[in-house]
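Work through this:
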Amino acid sequence: MPAPAARAVDFVARCPYRSPQHPGYTSWVSFFPGAGGRWYLTCEEVTRVDPPLPQCSLDAWHRMGLPTGYDKSQYRMEAVILESRDGLETWRVISRQPFRQHHTVGQFGTARTADGRFLRFVWACYALEPSADPAAVLYVSADEGATWERQPALHDPRFVSYPHRLRTLRDGTLVLAAPLAPRWGTPARPLRTCTDLSAPTDMQMTLFFSFDQGRTWQGPLPVLGGQSVSETDFVELPAGDLLLVNNSIFAYPGRQLVYRRGHTFTPGPLERAAGRTGMGEENMVPETACLTAEGLLVGCMRPGAYQLSDDLGRTWWPLQDVPRRGPEVYQPWIHALPDGRIACAGHFGRDAPIAGDDRDDQYLSLHLFRVVQERRTRATCLAVERECDAPARRYRNVFTLHLQGDGQPLADRAVEVWYVERGQPGYASANVVPLDERMAMGGTRIVLRTDARGAARVDLSHLDGRGPHHTIQLVARFNADRADAEYQPCQTCQLECYTSAVQDAPL
C-alpha cells in the first residue's frame, strides 16, 4: 500500500533550553508566533529549593488524584517564556511567573496578540487552595511578561477546564480548545479521578473564540461528537473553516470540520479516519498538525513520530526519512513556518515523576525540517445516483457511480460497490463498526470499471419485490488500498434505501 510521495529533508534537532538542575524539569510546551518574525516557547520549570517549600495538605494531594512521586508542592514552580528573534536559531528567557499555589501550570494554551500582550491559559483546577475559582483560567501580561493579571472566569464554575491549544487565525481571531469536566473537590465528586457511571463521558472538548484580541470570549462550543477527549489540535483551512484532528490516543481517531461564517462556527460530524488507527505508526492520527502551502497536513505523535496526510486527515501515513531521535518532542506542538519549514516543539522525556532518575532529565526540544512533495496526488470525488423511472413513479434498484479526479471524469478506473440487505450480517443500524469489519462479516462486493464519462453502472434489480420495508445499505469507494498512487482515495456516504421505492398514487 503506497504512501503519499513526500519525505522530510534538512532535519535538525535543537535544545532551546534546559534547567541548570539535574534531573531537570522543563516540560509541557506551548509554541506560538509573535509579530516581526518572533517566536515563543513556554514551559513549566520546576526546581528544588533549600529549604523545601511547605508541602500541600494530604487532603489536597489526594483530591488531585496524584500518584506517588508526583507531588510538586515543595518545589519552586514557574511558568517560563522564551523568545527567538532569529528564525528559531537562538532562544532567551524573557519571563518567569511564579505559580506557588498550583500543582501544575498547564499553560498549553498561550499566545501573543497583535497589540503585544501575552495570553496564558492555565489549569486553575490544580490550585492547592480549595477555594480557588477553577474557571478563572486566563492570565494577561501587557509588559513583556514582567507582571500578570488574572482575568474573570471564562466558564461556568460548576466545571473545570484543561485548556490545551490556543491558535491565532489569519484575521486575528483567537481559538481556544479546552475540555470541560464536572468540578471535582466537592462532596458529590471528591476526587479528580471520579467518574459518573450514568454519563457516556465526563469530559467534553469545547472551543472558545475571541474576536477582540482576547478581551472577551464566546463559547463554549462542544465539538468532537461527545467523545471523551482531553487533547486536540486544529488547522485553519484556506476558506477559513477549521479542521480538528482527534488523535489515536482516544477511542475514535478521526477528523471534524468546523465551518465558519463570520463570527459563527458550526461543527460538522466527527469522521473516523480511514485505515488502522491504533497506536502503531501506520495510519496513526497525530496529536498536533499543521497545513503546508501545498495542502499537505503534517502531524506529530509523542514522542516524535511524524505523519502525513494528503487528503485533509481522511488517511494518515508515516512521513518518510525522519531520523529516529528518541523521545524528543513529548506533548508536541507543530507549525508550518512562513519560509516553508516545519517546526515541532515539545519536551524530551515523558510524563515523569518530579523526583526522577537520569532518564528523566527533561528539557525543551525543537525539530526543524522541510517536506518535499515528489508527486501531487490528485483529489477525487465519487458520487452515487439511483435510477429514476418517472412514468412509473418509482426509483429502480439500479445505481450509477460517477468518479472524478481534480474535477474531471476518470475513465477506466476500478470502483467497488458493497451492499448488504437489512438484517443480514454486516448490516448496521448504528454507525459503530468500521466499514472494513462489516464487509468482512457479510454483504456483497462488486468491482466495476468506469467508462469514458467516469461512470459505472450496477444493476441490483434482483432485489425487486422484497416488500415495502426491505432496505439495503450501499457504499461505493475508489482506491481504498491506495494501489493507484496518483489519486487520493474516496468513499461515498452510506446510502440506505427501500428496495421497493414506489411513490403513493396521487389522491
About this structure: Helices lie at 58-63, 435-441. The chain has two domains: 6-373, 380-502.
